[in-house]
Amino acid sequence: MGGREHHPSQSRPMLRQAPTMRFFLLLSCLASLCLAAAATAEHKHVPLPQFEALFSVNLQVLTESTFQGPFGTRVHSMTSGGNLTNATTGEIVGQVLQNQDNGLYSTSGIFFPSVVLPVVWAADQKLGSIFITGVGVGETVKAYLHLETESPKWSSLNSRFLIANLVYVPPAANITIFGEL
């Protein structure tokens, strides 16, 4: 008849195996759901991160230049540099060098800073850089930081999760840096 030849004995084993295959498929789906539920249950008990205040720095914005771009207003600011102090004791632990930073005021009014603060550590005169990116509205910015340094004393900060609060009331920019416990 021009088609495939059908032999009755070929279809019978498939009919017998179909309930077994359906059972294993159902069992596999149930096992997957149980594993997903267990994984979700574990994540519900993850504690919120805890932070401690590490450093404070007070900078003065010396000059500020802006221009209109396609995404909003670009800001370039020259800052004075200043002391990097222990947030708890007030002890000077480093010097932030004079620098140029920038950011973007989006057309919706949100500020996105992109800053690199060069640091000379007081303990050993080694260099470091604090990279800051964040989001802010008005005078306050919440930021993520990454710190890199060659200082043996402060090298543990190279792999530590850091955040910051930055308050900018012209001409002063006050930054408090926090490290995850």
Name some characteristics of this structure:
Porin, 2 domains, alpha+beta, 10-stranded antiparallel β-sheet, 181 residues, elongated, 10 strands
Q: What do these coordinates show?
A:
This protein is α+β, with helices and mostly antiparallel strands and 181 residues long. It has 2 domains: 8-46; 51-180, Beta Barrel (Porin), CATH 2.40.160. The protein has one helix at 8-43, and strands at residues 51-69, 72-79, 82-86, 92-96, 99-106, 111-121, 127-137, 140-149, 162-169, 172-180. Strands 1, 2, 3, 4, 5, 6, 7, 8, 9 and 10 form a 10-stranded antiparallel sheet that branches. The longest helix is centred in the first third of the chain and has 36 residues, at 8-43. It is elongated. The mean pLDDT is 87.
In CATH, what is the class of the largest domain? Answer: Mainly Beta
Count of individual domains:
2
Q: Tell me the CATH topology of the largest domain.
A: Porin
CATH architecture of the largest domain: Beta Barrel
Helix content: 10-25%
| Cα-atom radius of gyration | 29 Å
What is the strand content? Answer: over 45%
Global outline: elongated
Whole-number mean pLDDT: 87
Unreliable segments of 5+ consecutive residues? none
Total beta-strand segments? 10
Largest sheet data: 10 strands, antiparallel
* Tally of DSSP helical segments: 1
Taken in chain order, the helices and strands follow as: HEEEEEEEEEE
Distance between the termini: 78 Å
Q: Helices and strands: which structural class?
A: alpha+beta
